[in-house]
Amino acid sequence: MTNSAKLAAEVLKEHRASIDRLDAILVYTLGERFKHTQAVGKLKAEHDLPPSDPNREAGQIARLEDLAKEADLDPEFAKKFLNFIIAEVIQHHKQHQS
Question: What is its EC number (predicted)?
């Protein structure tokens, strides 16, 4: 292996280690987020509130799109990601109401 290839392999290893740490942060962050949305779902069920709030969801999507632009992340990807999370949360809220 050339010195250039060895250097590239070391840089690749460092990038992958960072990616692994960031993946862990994402998983723990999502776990924490879902703990709170589960609590919201229980609260909504206890007080006969609807499982979804379209105005809140639209505001969150717009906010996330702005954050994505600031973070140099594709806003469409961010929107799809949040829509996926919102759909999952609504399913959880519906489960609490049954």
Answer: 5.4.99.5
Joined tokens for residue 40 = 């919201």
pTM: 0.77
**Residue 39 pLDDT exceeds 90:** yes
3-state SS string over the chain?
A: CCHHHHHHHHHHHHHHHHHHHHHHHHHHHHHHHHHHHHHHHHHHHHCCCCCCCHHHHHHHHHHHHHHHHHCCCCHHHHHHHHHHHHHHHHHHHHHHHC
Q: Give me the CATH topology for the region 52-97.
A: Chorismate Mutase Domain, subunit A (1.20.59)
Question: Whole-angstrom Cα distance, residue 54 to residue 31?
Answer: 23
